[in-house]
Amino acid sequence: MAKRFGLLERKMQLSTRYGLAGIGALALLTVVHRLRDNPRWSGPTSDYLLGTLPNFAAAIAIAFVLLSIWTNHKGDAAPRSVKRRFLICASISGVGLLAWEAIQTTSDRFVFDLNDIGATALGILVAGLLFWIVTPKTR
To answer: Exposure of 103 by Cβ count < 10 A (0-12 exposed, 13-18 middle, 19+ buried)?
Structure first.
């Protein structure tokens, strides 16, 4: 069975792997937004988590959606190239979310929160861990 799973693992395209990771992060983002609208999920801990989890999930989703688009266009890219592209995609995700947080300092409608910056950084770190997990070790 393990041998058969290994065969299936090698056949899945990189763009599919990274796209599924991005979809998972987008699903988490959707669940968090649904829970934010539910008054039963109100309290200090849940308010904190529901306030910061969108940044966490978005950091992962943006990195993997961009990476899946790139790997879909590049086909069978070298592992070194894929790692470099992941770093670029994760940087775009992190810088974009940090820029959005900075823009909120000038807004009357949105709220700047240092905890969101921490959640974004943690999301980028988790994206790196997921990248290491879903990327085949040999190609």
So the answer is: exposed
Q: In this structure, which long-range contacts are made by residues 46-52, counting pairs with CB atoms below 8 Å and at least 24 apart in sequence?
A: 48/115, 51/113, 51/115, 51/116, 52/113, 52/115, 52/116, 52/118, 52/119
CA 118 – CA 101 distance, rounded (Å): 11
Are the C-beta atoms of 130 and 21 separated by less than 8 Å?
A: yes
Cα-Cα end-to-end distance for the chain:
21
List the one residue out of 132, 102, 124 whose CA is nearest residue 18: 132
46 pLDDT exceeds 90? no
Among 103, 96, 105, 102, residue whose Cα is nearest residue 123? 96
Considering only 27-36, 63-72, 76-85, 109-118, which range has the smallest mean pLDDT? 76-85
Rounded-to-integer distance, Cα 105 and Cα 12, Å: 43
Instruction: Identify the band that residue 38 occupies on the pLDDT scale cut at 50, 70 and 90.
Output: confident
> Taking the model in full, what pTM does it have?
0.85
